[in-house]
Amino acid sequence: MSSSEKSDLSSEEELVQKLAELRLVSARLDVGPEERQDWTQKAQQRVSQYLQDLPNSKVLGDGDQQEIEEAVKAVLPITEEPVSFDTALESFCSSVGDHMLMREGHPNYFAYVPGNSLYPSAIGDFLAAAFNPYALVSYACPAAVQMQHSLIRWVAGLFGYPESCAGNLTSGGTVGNLIAIATARDAKKLKAKDYHRCVVYLSELTHDGIGKVLHTIGMGEAVLRKIPVTERFGMDAEKLDEAIEKDTKEGLIPFAIAATTGTTDVGSVDPIAELADVAEKHGVWLHVDACYGGFFVLCDSVKHLFKGVERADSFTCDPHKGLFVPFGAGLVLVRNWKQLLTSNRRTPVSTLQDRPTFARQLNPEDLTFEQSTHFRAVRVWLPLQVFGVGTFRAALQEKLYLSQYLYHKLKAVPGLFVLEPQLSIVLFRYEGVPEQQQQQGCPAAEVNLRLLAHVCRDGRLFLASTTVLGQTYLRACVLAFRTHREHVDSLVAAVTDGLKQLLG
Amino acid sequence: MSSSEKSDLSSEEELVQKLAELRLVSARLDVGPEERQDWTQKAQQRVSQYLQDLPNSKVLGDGDQQEIEEAVKAVLPITEEPVSFDTALESFCSSVGDHMLMREGHPNYFAYVPGNSLYPSAIGDFLAAAFNPYALVSYACPAAVQMQHSLIRWVAGLFGYPESCAGNLTSGGTVGNLIAIATARDAKKLKAKDYHRCVVYLSELTHDGIGKVLHTIGMGEAVLRKIPVTERFGMDAEKLDEAIEKDTKEGLIPFAIAATTGTTDVGSVDPIAELADVAEKHGVWLHVDACYGGFFVLCDSVKHLFKGVERADSFTCDPHKGLFVPFGAGLVLVRNWKQLLTSNRRTPVSTLQDRPTFARQLNPEDLTFEQSTHFRAVRVWLPLQVFGVGTFRAALQEKLYLSQYLYHKLKAVPGLFVLEPQLSIVLFRYEGVPEQQQQQGCPAAEVNLRLLAHVCRDGRLFLASTTVLGQTYLRACVLAFRTHREHVDSLVAAVTDGLKQLLG
């Protein structure tokens, strides 16, 4: 044994000693069966209590400054020493759990697009994280890829998309829209020097997120062309046609139409079949944002509104909206899978080359710009299993009818102007403001905002307002699965009461 | 009562009847307390069994075609009718759970960058989904924002980042890198017409994902300039300086340096302080990708390698690598929060305007291109609480020492050339291939790939290979928290045995 080997051995002995010490500490990360059971049970109990109390708690916190500061402080800081699981759970519950100023999934949440918290999704996330497969390549976990694949196929089938499509689960609609528009950019082989001449066509009611998407994909200089809507609030196909012709003549590059089936503001549906005709005529990419409204395609009463979506080049919808799944579940489809692949496949990897070719399925990592994500499919797949599509169909149909019901009830209130809903968003405003009040500096918009404040005043109901074509409306979006008739009744009562108080 | 009112009422009666029917079905989505408890308990038991069996199961499935097909088929299709929770859980476990061809978090997973499955993260995801706060704006849930905020601050503090920084939790490193480089693009006010003249500087060992990131943000035409590495595999700062000067002279626009602290291939660390000097000299954005290696900053033995990171303009790291969190947890920091805000803030929203101004904290949604994501903070925060930073510190130090230990053990094997690890990746190759064998058409690279196949042959160990500067190596990455000395010993034994078999 040479002296150099001795020195190595001595260093090795030291290492072995240190390793033994560190192992004792680091092995704590490998939580044992009793703790796993105990921790899960405690978390489950707190969640269950929250859900039990939800319908009788406020949907909207009052935002008292001191209370909020205390909640924020209750989030334990990160420290060298551990705390007990009970302490950590208590910190979570007393900060986040008790102080959700907006309680998503509450039956009286009628604002924005309600979030929901399907319980099996929570178990799905638990399973996904605990097993932790790498779900983005078939050769790591083919069944995980298959689960994502079957979800995407199912959604494609709902809209009559062809077998040639491919898609992705995303964190939400914006990333879905981003993937779609980036794919359009690449399919049209646009060069950066021309980005400023590229035109994306929207309607006046298209979600403003599309501008952010363009910015992110490097096309912030592109032209956003707002096309007027018809009286049913859909994009006017004739005016779109004219705009594209005009732009082409002027040397611009019309490259994408961003249509919506279920606008966030009004819940209106663009006439997709007509837009598809225009898109085909001019060779422009047609993208359909169905984030809010897409899953209403399950309902017979409105299925016809989605006609033509199967002709769109790309499509997004949000299971975390229309399927009541918690935040973090979007879905994007591209009609021609080759375009999605071309836009997203990584250049051949020269290193780490032991990636078996397992080409029976497309690998999700080749169809998105993300490389690693959590296994998002389970949180959607598990609820679909344990409830069956029929239950979702019924719940969505109920929301549509509840909106009709709300429409009828509000229309019966003197002075209220109400827009008949196409999907589950009801817009209304009070138009009976006496001239005297208006002259005293209280215009109609102001009265309506006061009415809104009155309805939301005690936190038991949560509505939003919106401005559509220059008019201010109160806006009720019915999309919480816990919302039933009595909740809509309480909304109508609050509006009636509010009007009495304001005008009395 | 007019006839029109009658007709309304009659329609309303019909609606009320339908609503009552649909409610009965849709109310199934609101799972009751007994079911919640039962389902969670069953999911917990299956997870616990998986984790119990993990160390004694194979890390690498054999990928038998029939077995895989059966696993894929075991994923239940989506159907109109529900199945029982037990059936759905069984489907999940027998498809995904039993057929993870690569078992992430297995103590013998030495390939790629090991995934992990810290149990409290799974509970964190469960809590996040079940409570489902909208965690992207303060006025929806200030404590959720605070939890994210405190995580970001903690990471910033580890690297000495100034208070002026801001950041985000992302789905993983790629999205972190995307946000960083898009922020650089916007901070440098680059115009699309100049994208093709923009240069990003990498080293020969920089992860190839950066090309994909550039493509996604619209800069696919930008120039990727590979700078040679020094003998310690770090980017050569002098050569970088020269390249930037040359490019500037030639009319190109050097705009970003993509440095790495912990390359995926070698685990080498770029000399950030030296690169920061060059970046400052030329006014070029310095981005540091610390996805794999970042959290080793917790360890005294390698802390010095991260010197200078505090001077970088942006930075990414992956809790789902260095903190053993399941897939789906990345983090990006931008030194100057205003740049991140400018790059990501949405244009003022004209509709849905009832968003209270609650400006005490930056709203996460203004700091990322995403609009809705799941509440990612809990899966990182909860493990940090219940284990304390000290436990992570010990576990990471153990991985570093295990790599040193592996290095020493392999170096003692005759014929093996071993690279001394900087962090926790050990590269080695057999160099003693007899000339006779080489002449018989079995060059050194081939022998090494056969050795790799031998080591991985029975699925009890999982290594990768890589090609670095033209040489093929076997590559062991030690980053599973369950990996301890005996697992490294078994790796060494398998290599020794493999060599005997191949050369015997």
From TrEMBL, chains A, B:
<comment type="subunit">
    <text>Homodimer.</text>
</comment>
<dbReference type="GO" id="GO:0030170">
    <property type="term" value="F:pyridoxal phosphate binding"/>
</dbReference>
<dbReference type="InterPro" id="IPR010977">
    <property type="entry name" value="Aromatic_deC"/>
</dbReference>
<protein>
    <submittedName>
        <fullName>Tyrosine decarboxylase 1-like</fullName>
    </submittedName>
</protein>
<keyword id="KW-0210">Decarboxylase</keyword>
<dbReference type="InterPro" id="IPR015422">
    <property type="entry name" value="PyrdxlP-dep_Trfase_small"/>
</dbReference>
<dbReference type="GO" id="GO:0042423">
    <property type="term" value="P:catecholamine biosynthetic process"/>
</dbReference>
<dbReference type="GO" id="GO:0019752">
    <property type="term" value="P:carboxylic acid metabolic process"/>
</dbReference>
<dbReference type="InterPro" id="IPR015424">
    <property type="entry name" value="PyrdxlP-dep_Trfase"/>
</dbReference>
<feature type="modified residue" description="N6-(pyridoxal phosphate)lysine">
    <location>
        <position position="321"/>
    </location>
</feature>
<dbReference type="InterPro" id="IPR015421">
    <property type="entry name" value="PyrdxlP-dep_Trfase_major"/>
</dbReference>
<comment type="similarity">
    <text>Belongs to the group II decarboxylase family.</text>
</comment>
<dbReference type="GO" id="GO:0016831">
    <property type="term" value="F:carboxy-lyase activity"/>
</dbReference>
<dbReference type="GO" id="GO:0005737">
    <property type="term" value="C:cytoplasm"/>
</dbReference>
<keyword id="KW-0127">Catecholamine biosynthesis</keyword>
<keyword id="KW-0456">Lyase</keyword>
<dbReference type="Pfam" id="PF00282">
    <property type="entry name" value="Pyridoxal_deC"/>
</dbReference>
<dbReference type="InterPro" id="IPR021115">
    <property type="entry name" value="Pyridoxal-P_BS"/>
</dbReference>
<keyword id="KW-0663">Pyridoxal phosphate</keyword>
<dbReference type="GO" id="GO:0006520">
    <property type="term" value="P:amino acid metabolic process"/>
</dbReference>
<dbReference type="InterPro" id="IPR002129">
    <property type="entry name" value="PyrdxlP-dep_de-COase"/>
</dbReference>
